[in-house]
Amino acid sequence: MFTPTISGVVGHYDFKTAALDVFDYTYWNAGLALAVDKLTFDFRYWDTDAGETDCFGVLPSTCDERFVFSVTLALP
Questions:
Q1: Model's pTM, two decimal places?
Q2: Domain boundaries, the chain
Q3: How far apart are CA 58 and CA 71, in angstroms?
Q4: What is the DSSP letter of 61?
Q5: What does the pLDDT look like over 12-51, one tens digit per residue?
Q6: What span, in angstroms and rounded, lies between the C-alpha atoms of 3 and 53?
Q7: 21-36 sheet: strands from edge to edge
Q8: Cα dihedral angle (49, 50, 53, 57), rounded to 10 degrees?
Q9: Which residues are CB-contacts of 28 (< 8 A; sequence separation ≥ 6)?
Q10: Of the candidates 62, 65, 66, which has an alpha carbon nearest to the alpha carbon of residue 52?
Protein backbone atom coordinates (compact mmCIF):
# COMPACT_ATOMS: atom_id res chain seq x y z
CA MET A 1 0.00 0.00 0.00
CA PHE A 2 2.70 2.54 0.99
CA THR A 3 6.19 1.87 -0.38
CA PRO A 4 9.11 4.32 0.10
CA THR A 5 12.18 3.96 -2.15
CA ILE A 6 15.52 5.79 -2.03
CA SER A 7 17.53 5.85 -5.25
CA GLY A 8 20.28 7.69 -7.07
CA VAL A 9 22.30 7.81 -10.28
CA VAL A 10 25.82 8.92 -11.19
CA GLY A 11 26.97 9.12 -14.79
CA HIS A 12 29.47 10.76 -17.10
CA TYR A 13 28.90 12.25 -20.55
CA ASP A 14 31.87 12.75 -22.88
CA PHE A 15 31.15 14.47 -26.19
CA LYS A 16 34.08 14.14 -28.57
CA THR A 17 34.54 13.81 -32.30
CA ALA A 18 37.67 13.11 -34.30
CA ALA A 19 38.20 16.85 -34.85
CA LEU A 20 36.79 18.31 -31.62
CA ASP A 21 37.04 17.74 -27.89
CA VAL A 22 33.84 19.64 -27.15
CA PHE A 23 32.94 18.97 -23.52
CA ASP A 24 32.39 16.39 -20.83
CA TYR A 25 30.58 16.46 -17.52
CA THR A 26 29.46 14.26 -14.65
CA TYR A 27 25.82 14.23 -13.57
CA TRP A 28 24.01 12.79 -10.58
CA ASN A 29 20.66 12.66 -8.82
CA ALA A 30 19.29 11.31 -5.55
CA GLY A 31 15.72 11.12 -4.40
CA LEU A 32 12.90 9.62 -2.43
CA ALA A 33 9.86 8.04 -4.10
CA LEU A 34 6.68 7.17 -2.24
CA ALA A 35 4.28 4.74 -3.91
CA VAL A 36 0.66 4.73 -2.77
CA ASP A 37 -1.65 2.39 -4.69
CA LYS A 38 -1.23 3.41 -8.37
CA LEU A 39 0.45 6.77 -7.64
CA THR A 40 4.17 7.38 -7.15
CA PHE A 41 5.41 10.71 -5.77
CA ASP A 42 9.10 11.39 -6.44
CA PHE A 43 11.16 14.21 -4.90
CA ARG A 44 14.67 14.33 -6.36
CA TYR A 45 17.83 16.49 -6.38
CA TRP A 46 19.66 16.78 -9.75
CA ASP A 47 23.08 18.36 -10.41
CA THR A 48 26.08 18.31 -12.75
CA ASP A 49 29.63 19.59 -12.65
CA ALA A 50 29.07 21.26 -16.05
CA GLY A 51 30.00 24.92 -16.26
CA GLU A 52 28.68 27.73 -18.46
CA THR A 53 31.00 26.78 -21.33
CA ASP A 54 29.67 23.20 -21.24
CA CYS A 55 26.16 24.63 -21.69
CA PHE A 56 27.42 26.70 -24.62
CA GLY A 57 26.76 29.91 -22.64
CA VAL A 58 23.26 30.15 -24.13
CA LEU A 59 21.20 28.87 -21.21
CA PRO A 60 23.66 28.26 -18.36
CA SER A 61 20.78 27.66 -15.94
CA THR A 62 20.09 24.36 -17.73
CA CYS A 63 23.22 23.00 -16.04
CA ASP A 64 22.34 24.32 -12.56
CA GLU A 65 21.29 22.11 -9.69
CA ARG A 66 17.58 21.74 -8.97
CA PHE A 67 14.95 19.90 -6.98
CA VAL A 68 12.26 18.16 -9.05
CA PHE A 69 8.92 16.77 -7.88
CA SER A 70 6.99 14.38 -10.11
CA VAL A 71 3.85 12.27 -9.88
CA THR A 72 3.37 9.08 -11.87
CA LEU A 73 0.11 7.19 -12.37
CA ALA A 74 0.35 3.48 -13.23
CA LEU A 75 -2.40 2.50 -15.64
CA PRO A 76 -3.60 -1.11 -16.01
A1: 0.75
A2: 2-9+26-73
A3: 30
A4: G
A5: 988 776 666 677 889 999 999 999 999 999 999 999 988 7
A6: 41
A7: 2-16, 21-36, 39-48, 66-73
A8: -120
A9: 8, 9, 10, 11, 46, 47, 48
A10: 62
